[in-house]
Specification:
The protein is of the alpha+beta class and 437 residues long. The protein has helices spanning 25-38, 54-60, 64-86, 140-153, 206-212, 260-265, 271-303, 312-332, 337-343, 348-376, 382-388, 395-404, 408-427, and strands at residues 2-10, 15-23, 96-98, 109-117, 130-133, 156-159, 172-181, 193-198, 220-226, 240-254, 429-432.
Length: 437
Amino acid sequence: MQITKTNFEDDGQAREIDLTLVASAEEVDEYVKLYLKDLSTLDIPGFRKGKAPRKMIEQGVGGHEAFMGGAAEKLINSLAFKCLDDADILFIDEPEFNVSTTMEDGKPFTFQVSGKVQPVMELTSYEPVSIQMPPDEATDDEISRHIENLRDYYHTFEDITDEDHVAQMGDYCMLNVTITTADGGRISGLTEVDRLVGLGKGTMPASFDEHIVGAKKGMTLSFDFKVEGETNRPEFGDGNLHANVEVMSFRKCIIPDLDDAFAQKLGAENVKALTEQVRNALNMDKNKYLPQLMEERVVDALIERIDGTVPEYYVNFIREDVGREMVADLDKEGTSLQNWILKNDVQREELKEAIQAESLNRAVRDCALEAMFRHQGWEITDQDVMDLLKGTDNPEETLKSWQDANHVAELRKMCRQNAVVRWLVKTAEVTVVEEAE
């Protein structure tokens, strides 16, 4: 079977392909025989199973035309999808088959296949990308920050016993807190709860902390404050909240000194040994995550060059994959989407927005990588496909399973995208910039 005609249509809303496929006369005769063999088990009055003539078998399934229709369906199911797969045709939904003529013995059989495919988009530039990356090896500043984080992790608290102490920035205050919305609505989990609040530490918004500064132990406070930005949850309404607070006690955070005793607590002989221990750990971490980070950044730089907007139909198609992946991941964890939403206090609208953003990112990524591969004029070989499967237990069996399912075109798409990413990494103009962790 071969594709004899290909026609693309793009109305700006969706890109569709219309293909004409032709099965040879030999293929037609082969599948007529196979279909006839499938029907040999029919009970035909007056004949033993498998001995009835073809004419009688045809009558048993509704006549010659119905028989040839069944043979044509068997041929299409067996050969058409493989033909499309070999031609790297990836429909984004179920293709439509149009069979307008009856298949005939000893003659080629022609039919049409049509459906939506991935849009073809262009980039504003096909030059190597420019990105920023952190240093390959741990710097002194990174090591110092990491050690400071370790010191902070091993902090302790010391009660402030001075009865005349007034709250100041840097204090940790044990407060009994009730938070309501501006109209008096209670907020789940924030009614008469004891909470240790670090003033100026981001535990609560700055507009909350400023009302605690200057307070003494035993005082009760009532004030309005505002929550903004990412910390503003839907149940907070417009972010204008009211707080009733009882100041219960004060504590001071004690950060351990950076000395040999602290180093020994972490398994190092002294501070110098701890420094080297941290350096080695950071370098090992960099060896693991920097290659992946570079791949992410070169692709991010590439998708910024996409010329135009990815059509909605393709984003919707990707969104179905994102949703299925999320449900499958939750199934592996032994939970449902509903339970996950409740457990993580996620609002459905927030989840929809996150899925939409991920779907759009993947759709743009797909189109950008395909555009670069097409522009470069590269080709994917059978060896490229085998190299892609090297990580599997048995590459040959894995490939056969993809072939049997007529999904090798998906493997070749992965190969195309991997080839582009490798080229982007190899040719990228990299500026090394020390970044905050």
